[in-house]
Design goal:
CATH class of the largest domain: Alpha Beta
Helix content: 55-70%
Shape: elongated
Number of helices: 6
Radius of gyration: 21 Å
CATH architecture of the largest domain: Roll
Structural class: alpha+beta
Distance between the termini: 28 Å
Number of domains: 2
CATH topology of the largest domain: Endonuclease I-creI
Strand content: 15-25%
Order of helices and strands: HEEHEEHHHH
Strand order of the largest sheet: 1-2-4-3
Length: 156
Amino acid sequence: MTWEYIAGFFDGEGSITHNKKGYRITISQTDLKVLQKIRNYVDYGFVFKNKKRKSHWKDSWIYYIAKQESVLEFLIKIKPLAVVKKEQIIFIIPILKKAVKNINKKKRIRLANIVKAKKLREQGLTYRQIGKKLNIDFGHARRLALGIYGDSSSIG
């Protein structure tokens, strides 16, 4: 497997989509082995079976990258090799760089709040008091202090 192969494959079979959570990379294919090899080479993303819309259709699978840092890395690596989607990639990369920078900033703030919330809790403050000190909801303060994070993207 090579980045040249992946770029060509993505140019022909892949797509870049955007929703409220950011950009997504997808490559659809009826050959599961190819997508698994791409996934193993790239070392991020997921391969899952696509639901058949009609019974006579072949089974198909989708290689899917959703984590914005991974989408950015993927696009940067295939940018010099892409042909069909090159303009789209060139347009998206600066937007993704800014988004990833914001994501990393939010992670740093959250990590700092976790440390602060745990220290304040050890000092005997209630979750409401911690929330007021950190300017966050007391339920959020509780989750931070207990190490309960509401979403999988919150920490690394």
